[in-house]
Amino acid sequence: MSKDGLVVGLDVGTTKTAVVVGEASENNEIYILGSGIAPSTGIKKGMIINIEETIKTIEAVVSDAEHISDADIDTVYISVGGYHIQGQNTRGRIIIPPSQKEIVSEDKSRVQEAAR
What we know:
Blueprint: E1 6-12, E2 16-24, E3 30-39, E4 43-44, E5 47-48, H1 51-69, E6 77-79, H2 105-115
């Protein structure tokens, strides 16, 4: 279910990955609706060494939080710490034919390549 006023935080750390889902009230209080937590994979000493494993962990905790909170999560605030962290905004676009009914892994690879 899509909910207005959702606030979702994601913390990706060396030892654990956690997500919390809250709903903002009219008086700016946040009510916790659900959460997910799992041991981090693909991360060593604060560095991502296996992006696919890290993605799997993030997808798992987000899925858990969606199930518990009965919410569809499409936007998160993320926390990634470390002195070595740098941000880079990129965009990637691909054309998906109208006859294609769903996004497949090849589409994901193509859009990642386009964003580089």
